[in-house]
Amino acid sequence: MAPLDSLDDGLDDAATALYAMRPDEFTARRNARAQTVAADDRALAARIRELRRPSPAAWLVNQLVRHRSDEVEAVLELGAEARETQGSFSAVELAELGRQRRRLVSTLAHEAGALADELGSPVRTPVLDEVAQTLQAAMSDAAAADAVRTGRLVRALEAVGVEVDLSDAVAGGPAPRTEPARDAHAGDSPGLLSAAATKRAEVARGRAERAVAEAEERAAAASAALDALDARLADADREHRDLASRRDELDAELRKVEAEMAEADRAKRTVTRERDRAARDAEAAEVDADEAREALESLG
């Protein structure tokens, strides 16, 4: 049997690779991975088979960690600084911090939607709401932040009061343990930030602001591209309507010509019948004329 640490490491490695996959690929890749390692480590293979497919929101948060790591870290660091210094902010500062947190989370959730499209697995608004809910939970709780950082979430997170339930939330190794609540008044004097805490808060906010600016710049570029495509779509739609109208006109003209052709066919058939009848009459008259001539000649 493999040592426990080796087993955990192997499971973490497998989970890290598997939770990078798209949800529709997960089960097949998980089973294939378990089958590959079964010959050498049956215990590890069994634990790999137990890995659960992530929810859409959990998958998308995992992809943010992989593809938008700077923005995610800015969110988590801002949350950490807010937790450390929450007892030292004025009501106005707390309100501003709350607005900044909501803005950053909203921007990152919007970025998540674009990332899902980019990765070929578009999601609906309720999934993005769960992504935002998970990011809010990670900002409010250090253990939840560490859970998000693993990139191996199985389900979305939710803060209930000051607690975040992490049971069965992280695949692979054990979920990070919730840290005991810190005394907001321990250390520095009430209402005062230490110089170090102030500096950390400024750095975190600066990083968060840069992350917001970068995400908003990408969003603006995506919006401009969408506007250009909308304009092209409008042009194509107008051309389609014009061609459809022209097609209808041609269809009407074709129906008219076909009706005229049908009438001409009927007239042709009528004339043909009359001509055939006239030909037969002419032939009969010729026979009568021949007989009359013969009779005349016989009279001398």
Largest sheet: 2 strands, antiparallel
N-to-C span: 139 Å
Anisotropy-based shape: elongated
Q: For the residues shown, what is the average pLDDT?
A: 82
Number of helices: 9
Across the major sheet, the strand order is: 1-2
* Number of E strands: 2
| Fraction in beta strands | under 5%
How much helix, percentage-wise, in residues? over 70%
Structural class by SSE content:
mainly alpha
Based on CA atoms alone, the radius of gyration comes out at: 41 Å
- What order do the helices and strands follow? HHHHHHHHEEH
Q: Low-confidence stretches at least 5 residues in length (pLDDT < 50)?
A: 178-197
Region (Disordered): 169-191, 262-300
Protein name: Transposase
Biased composition (Basic and acidic residues): 262-283, 290-300
Fold and architecture overview:
Strand 1 and strand 2 form a beta hairpin. Among the domains are: 43 residues, no CATH class; 165 residues, no CATH class. The protein has 300 residues and is mostly helical. Helix 5 packs antiparallel against helix 6 and helix 5 crosses helix 7. The chain has a two-stranded antiparallel sheet. The longest helix is centred in the last third of the chain and has 104 residues. It is 75% helix and 1% strand. This is Transposase. It comes from Agromyces fucosus.
